[in-house]
Amino acid sequence: MGWIEENMKFTNVRKILSQAISLGMVVSLALMMWKGLTCITGSQSPVVVVLSGSMEPGFQRGDILFLYINKNPIRTGQIVVFNDGRDIPIVHRVIEVHEHEDTKEVDILTKGDANEDDDRMLYASNHDWLQQKYIMGRAVGFLPYVGWFTIIMSEKPILKYILVGGLGLLVLTSKE
Amino acid sequence: MHSFWYRLNGLLTFSVTILAIMCAIASLSDNLNTPSPSAEIQVMNINWFQKQPQGNDEVSLTMNISADLQSLFTWNTKQLFIFVAAEYETPKNSLNQVSLWDAIIPAKEHAKFWIHTSNKYRFVDQGNYLRGKEFNLTLHWHVMPKTGKMFADKIVLTGYSFPEEYR
After folding, report:
1. B89 with B157, same domain?
2. Per-residue pLDDT tens for B79-129?
């Protein structure tokens, strides 16, 4: 009877390994899709969630924006996502562009649609203008409401732990 | 195979896929629309034109803006964001674009309008090159959809110029 028990132990180990590999494949596939999207759109974060109400009524909190960046110069009216050293990037519209004759560098001023004032106060360390290098992408498309999941996850981290813990429990106790 | 969780999983996956397909089709349907917008801007008055203490030119002007943008609206349009920008060239900058006025048009009925307004945003140059300079006024519109791809276009109106002297 001893070797039957040993065989059953092997089958259990194999089952666990097979589940672990399936999980690994799902995670790798998700990572590949994300990285692929980063390559295609040219942006470090091709999908962003709108976090503030400064672009209302066009973009509400919880909408997601699809970003795309190419070598085309930034022009007024474009909705850009920029980060000049802050915690979270900002999604606002470009209202002024000055392209220098000599360097072809561009000075940019942005403003949220729903804001009274432009963003000069927000720019880092007394920069009067934003440079193209701080622009992470231009918004080219959007989906409403889908980003609420991310906002809830980041604002109530306990939910994240519950979700991951729950999923882990589900994997361990499932029969196949 | 028929437990509650499997059914719920199947249902959720199916509905999310269908929703995504519907959003994509809604967005694609915007391409079927062929818009024919028109606009006219008149500079009624240059209110004042001064050089600021820091050395930059600033101008305040009053404009009559009239436009018919009704053909840009489709069933998938949430709103239209329009703005008027001045475009000009200086010895220092090969291109300057300064937004003077903007508005949000929430519905087709409001897309045919006429407005008499001074510039909402300050028109300040990088430098003092505006005297006697010619500039274009462009009316841009950004179509923000209910879901999907955003697109934008503009009408360029030429023939405006700043006064030769400060006033």
Report:
1. yes
2. 999 999 999 999 888 999 999 999 999 999 988 999 999 988 989 888 888
Angstrom CA distances, B68 to B1, B35, B36, B71, B106, stand at 58, 11, 9, 8, 14
Q: What is the pLDDT of residues A48-86, one digit of tens each?
A: 888 888 888 888 888 888 888 888 888 998 999 888 877
pLDDT at residue number A68? 86
Q: Residues B58, B124: one domain?
A: yes
Nearest CA in chain A to B106: A57
Domain coverage including residue B156 = 35-161
Residue among A75, A31, A70, A67 at smallest CA distance from A50: A67
The architecture (CATH level 2) of A47-144 comes to: Ribbon (2.10)
Regarding whether B146 and B85 lie in a shared domain, the answer is: yes
Does the residue B151 lie in any domain?
A: yes
Token pair 């409401």 is at which residue?
A145
Alpha-carbon gap, residue A72 to A102, rounded angstroms: 18
Is B166 inside any structural domain? Answer: no
- For an interface test with A, give the residue of B79, B122, B144 to mutate (most A CBs within 10 A): B144
Contact pairs from chain A to chain B, CB under 8 Å: 80
Evaluate whether residue B47 is within a structural domain. Answer: yes
* Predicted complex ipTM: 0.83
Q: Which residues contact A148 (CB under 8 A, 6 or more apart)?
A: A62
Report if residue B113 sits inside a domain: yes
Give every CB contact of residue A30 below 8 A, 6+ residues apart in sequence: none
At B14 the pLDDT is: 92
Least confident span in A24-28, A42-46, A82-86: A42-46
B65 pLDDT more than 70:
yes
Q: Is A104's Cβ below 8 Å from some Cβ in B?
A: yes
